[in-house]
Amino acid sequence: MRVTAESRSWLQRGSSRAVSLLLAAPLALVLLIHPAAMLDAEGRYSHGLLMLVMWGICSGFIHGVGFDPYSRLWRSIFHPLGGWLLLGLGYATLWRARLG
What we know:
By secondary structure, the protein is mostly helical.
């Protein structure tokens, strides 16, 4: 059976994978190159929040490069929709840190 673009889920298409990669890469670079950009107004990190943001980055890279975990557990842990929500949380945290 041949799998075509029309028979795949919209989350398995190249455009949604590109969105994941384009959301994850800049946030990962900010955390690697200038981690102080994520400091809050008091000059501290929220480690729990950053852990969730890094989980979103991992989900974005896993989905973005085209890897589909076999196990249902790993598929649910690194689901792209959850990753997008956590990446959005990361961008909101970065935006709030820059304004505060």
